[in-house]
Write a structure and sequence with these properties.
With about 250 residues, this protein is α/β, with parallel strands linked by helices. The protein has a single domain (about 10-240), classed as TIM Barrel (Alpha-Beta Barrel). It is built from eleven helices and twelve strands. An eight-stranded parallel barrel has the order 1-4-5-6-7-10-11-12, surrounded by eight helices. The model is unreliable at about 1-5 (pLDDT under 50).
Length: about 250
Amino acid sequence: MTHLPEFEVIPAVDVQDGEVVQLVGGERGTGKRYGDPVEAAERWIDAGASTLHLVDLDGAFEGERVNAAAIEAVVDAVDDDVGLQLGGGIRTAAGARDLLDTGLDRVILGTAAVETPEIVADIDGTHPGSVVVSLDAKDGEVVVSGWTEGTGLDPAEAAARYEELGAGAILFTNVDVEGQLEGIDREAVSAVVDAVEIPVIASGGVATVEDVIALKEAGAAAVVVGTALYEGRFTLREAQSAADAADGS
């Protein structure tokens, strides 16, 4: 399932210490806990999700997969027709291939893609379209290692570079607004969308259904939503229905 639909609202299942957690501004230790990852995944699928966004938060900070057991439990629990993408602690092409061979549809590479860009082409060679390059922006530059290190890279320029290397999609997260329920940065998303032909998945700051619609209008192919869904600001069906109705699509 490397193909994204017209526009999709994707629930986030971020895992820390074996539990679902939503961080604020990408800061470790700020998370609010939302229970068992399998229960969360099943709840979102029951609510209509066709894709789940899985993140090993400890893996993102530690540089190796920490919550593998919890993630594998989710993979085992969901049907094959549900798309699964995973990020956090995936640092090697071999590790990415293993995940893709065991039921994941897409792997999300952030730090690894920045440090060794050729890993994108390497994985794409055996699993075409399966690599999502995660570009996390803070103060207008790409940051890595759990949002703690600046790279000096412009997100739009970086997105174009990874498209050339074979990325199937770009996940663009605005860390400045992550988890704060204060709205999105539409211009930043538009800049990345304009730089590439491949799908751009937007993430960070979604607080209202209007934010979801704005991201669709900015050209995003999908939006990942975490805190707003867990806090009940709107339902998954409300968000998807509103997006489907926007622009007459």
